[in-house]
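Entry 12.
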Amino acid sequence: MEMFSNAERAHVLVQALPYIKRYTGKIVVVKYGGNAMVNETLKNQVMEDIVLLHLIGVKIVLVHGGGPEINDLMARVGKEPEFVDGLRVTDKETIDIVQMVLAGKVNKTLVNLIEKQGGPAIGLSGMDGRLIEAKVKDERLGYVGEVTKINIRPVLDLLDNGYIPVISTIGCDREGNAYNINGDTAAAHIAGALNAERLIMMTDIDGILRDKNDPTTLIPELTLQEADQLYKDGVISGGMIPKVDCCITAIHAGVKNVVIMDGRVSHSILMELLTNEGAGTWLHE
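Predicted 3D structure (tokens):
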């Protein structure tokens, strides 16, 4: 038995029409990682969302991480991951592993999944066309980079030619050294350089919660001024601080608005962009 009648399907499409009009021709950057990346069912649903948006004329840019896959390969070679202030300590051997995993396996797997869903995708690393230029962030962290410049031309060229850019967050300096770049940070800078309509940050929680242990306390909308007060009140704390910092960076750089949302929810991207309820916490000026 079919769950929906043809009339109900048509009604859903008509309800989505205002949102389709709003985003057609606009750039939306999706930062993708976490549990949504390691769960194969969710991974396919994310790719379906991306391809559907591409087909209705939204210019999608996918920026991805791959922490679990990096940890897996490190374990295979007998190397123990080490973190300082939430950032991976990246020595010479580790940056080689990070580059292999992010620019290789993960990036090309996502490109292939998008292509299987009918979307034209091309994978890039931040080293291609010197897309992400970087310098040493902290000597204690080794080859962890701080973004110094975004050369956005390669991404614009792909968008102009109808492709979905899939970007792994490896940066480089003028001497050719590779750097591991925090995915949220890279996505914020890339979205800002694109003057994106929206940056979607996919996470492992519902969004910003007034009580981190109670998902019913989700804050659906925040201005930057209100976010500043939540920092002071300790509501934005722990691991949420750097994520919200990246959202604010993106808005200051020219992104219209940013959403922090739960990537574990089926078709959460479509819910956010094509319904009146949205998903997660919406930040704007």
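Annotation: The mean pLDDT is 89. The domain at 30-284 is CATH 3.40.1160.10 (Carbamate kinase).
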